[in-house]
Amino acid sequence: MKDIKGTTNVCCLIGNPVAHSISPLIHNTLAQLRGDDLVYVPFKVEENRVEEAVKGAYALNVLGMNVTVPHKQHVLQALVETDSIAQAIGAVNTLVRTTKDGISGYKGYNTDILGLERELEDVGVSLKDKEIVLLGAGGAARAIAFLCVQKGASQVVILNRTISKANSIAVAVNQYFNQSIVKAMDIKDYDKMALNDYIAIQTTSVGLHPNNDDVIICDDQFYKNAAAGVDIIYNPSTTKFMKLMHKHGKPAYNGLKMLLYQGIAAYELWLNCTITKEMADKVYDVMEKNCFAAFRNEDK
Fold first, then answer.
1. Using N-to-C axis directions, what is the helix angle for 23-34 and 277-299, rounded to 10°?
2. Residue 250 known to be catalytic
3. What is the pLDDT of residues 215-241, one digit of tens each?
4. Containing H/E element for 198?
5. Pick the catalytic residue: 5, 55, 72, 107?
6. Is the pLDDT of residue 291 over 80?
7. Cα–Cα distance between 250 and 224 in angstroms, integer?
8. Among the four 29, 92, 145, 281, which has the fewest Cβ within 10 Å?
9. Rounded Cα distance, 260 and 117, in Å
10. 253 phi/psi in degrees, rounded to 5
11. End-to-end distance of the chain based on CA atoms, in angstroms?
12. Are strands 94-100 and 64-67 parallel, antiparallel or unpaired?
């Protein structure tokens, strides 16, 4: 058991719900491996009390915070500063203590995009000069669309049932980068895409446990035309989307490493440190052991 002292730094997660979050596992394992005097705890915060919670955390000398659904947008109002790309995305998930223009508080970052970026680097998938297909147009898709253009993708197509949501993302990203790389399409028209060897990134909750056999596109041709696939879901560890990729000999990855690396990016911001690949791999092993064992128990 960790020895909590008067010098122990506190970091936390706010969201609703937070009971099943594995962020405490990530950060407390990192602290243990590095020997940092730090403890990480989750706090359930109601939607109408986000600003109050952030100000209270600063007053209590909380070193750093993570923010999860449904507060990633609302929390922007409680910050004294926001990282430029996080501001453009319109969502933050990591808060770091700062002072700007004499006002003290937290600065917001979006480490979700850093998480996916590092996962792709880890598995050897490059976005540069690649065609990308995003399935879904929620908050995750918005952040990932920014990442894809930032990393030099040649084209990004967002497929969604409500095309206005996909188009809203396309307009925001294209305006931010002053390019015309992102376009929106109705998901029912996926077979009209003039793309091949694309990277397909599944950003919706379709296929999330317990609906393990659900998939947003079931047409084999979609997976034959892809070069690789990433599903941001990590429960189940192999989604139906991934199985269809594998069926056609294409590599596919779940979102557990994205979750790992967004946490690592936050930890590095809080402590101004660098987490080594060796240490990241140790944390990932702990996550796999604990998470997938828990998932198996849920199925019994």
1. 140
2. no
3. 999 999 999 999 999 999 999 999 999
4. strand 198-202
5. 72
6. no
7. 8
8. 281
9. 12
10. -135, 145
11. 30
12. antiparallel
Give yes or no for a contact between 114 and 265, defined as CB atoms under 8 angstroms apart. Answer: yes
> What gap in Å lies between CA 292 and CA 245, rounded to an integer?
21
Query: Which is it for the CA torsion 24, 33, 121, 90, positive or negative?
Result: positive
Quote the Cα angle for 13-18-19, to 5°.
125
Q: Is the dihedral of CA 79, 85, 91, 94 positive or negative?
A: negative
Quote the CA–CA distance of 51 and 49 in Å, as a whole number: 6
Quote the CA–CA distance of 298 and 159 in Å, as a whole number.
Answer: 32
CB burial of 180-212 (b: ≥16 within 10 Å; e: otherwise) equals ebbebbebeebeebeeeebbbbbbbebbbeeeb
In this structure, are residues 141 and 149 in contact, taking their beta carbons and an 8 Å threshold? no
Instruction: Kindly state the average pLDDT of the residues 156-170.
Output: 97
49: tokens are 């009390």
Peptide bond into 236 cis (omega under 30): yes
Q: What helix, strand, coil percent values describe the chain, rounded to 5?
A: 45, 20, 35
Amino acid at 86: A
Residue among 228, 203, 209 nearest 291 (CA): 209
Least confident of 17-31, 123-137, 157-171, 283-297: 283-297
Rounded to whole angstroms, the Cα distance separating 300 from 295 reads 9
Decide: 157 and 201 in contact? Cβ < 8 Å: no
Name residue 202's beta-bridge partners. Answer: 135, 231
Cβ atoms of residues 68 and 13 within 8 Å: yes
pTM of the predicted protein model? 0.91
For residue 158, give the amino acid letter.
Answer: I
